[in-house]
Amino acid sequence: MNKTKITIVDYGVGNLSSLKKAFKFFGMEADISEDPQSVERADAVVLPGVGSYEAGMRGLKVRGLVDAVRGAAEKNRPMLGICLGAQLLLSQGLEFGVFNGLDIISGKVVRFPDLENNEKIPQIGWNGVCPLKDQTWQKTIFDSLSENFNAYFVHSYIFNLDNKEDMLGLTKYGGYEFCSAFKKGNIYGCQFHPEKSGPAGLKIIKNFIDLI
């Protein structure tokens, strides 16, 4: 029996060890790799990251990973983007300029607008994630979670999706409600960090594993 292969994409931004440990908690060995062939052969792909949009895309390009990630998405393999990794799945990022992304999800990454009470940017800490009105989380990576679970965020930029049907989760910060998670087929993105979000985050990892 062939062993399920999960590849955590290393494109030079972020500490990946905590994410690897989250998969190991459920008995799944996830390989950390910057090799495009490892991404191409994977049954599932995780695209994490912390840092600027430009640096993230540059890291993917210099390692020859752009086509490999796009190819996995075109085959609708389970994919999970986290924080910057999720942002890079969109068409463009407007952080310190205009930079083209992977264009797997139609939309742009934009800075938080002016917030109430001079709320600090970046948002750092715990915040709630809830579904869109009349939306169900069944058979998604949020399956069995409460409809306002807490997750850990560190970010100054947010998803601005072109298609509302791609939106999976909403979060409110400083009086402003924004998309904090998306889904298109088997491709998911979370602005927060599941690997740092306690029991709810571990449930998300488990649900992702169950997709594979």
TrEMBL record:
Reaction equations catalysed: 5-[(5-phospho-1-deoxy-D-ribulos-1-ylimino)methylamino]-1-(5-phospho-beta-D-ribosyl)imidazole-4-carboxamide + L-glutamine = D-erythro-1-(imidazol-4-yl)glycerol 3-phosphate + 5-amino-1-(5-phospho-beta-D-ribosyl)imidazole-4-carboxamide + L-glutamate + H(+); L-glutamine + H2O = L-glutamate + NH4(+)
GO BP term, pick one: L-histidine biosynthetic process
UniProt-recorded Gene Ontology molecular function terms: glutaminase activity; imidazoleglycerol-phosphate synthase activity; lyase activity
CDD domains, A to Z: GATase1_IGP_Synthase (cd01748)
Domain of life, source organism: Bacteria
SUPFAM superfamilies associated with the record: Class I glutamine amidotransferase-like (SSF52317)
InterPro entries: Class_I_gatase-like, GATASE, Imidazole-glycPsynth_HisH
Any one GO cellular component localisation term in the record: cytoplasm
Active-site residues, record numbering mapped to chain: 83, 193, 195
Keywords: Amino-acid biosynthesis, Cytoplasm, Glutamine amidotransferase, Histidine biosynthesis, Hydrolase, Lyase, Transferase
Compartments, as annotated in UniProt: Cytoplasm
Keyword field contains Cytoplasm: yes
Subunit record text: Heterodimer of HisH and HisF.
HAMAP family: HisH (MF_00278)
Name by which UniProt lists this protein: Imidazole glycerol phosphate synthase subunit HisH
Classification lineage: Bacteria, Candidatus Harrisoniibacteriota
Annotated gene: hisH
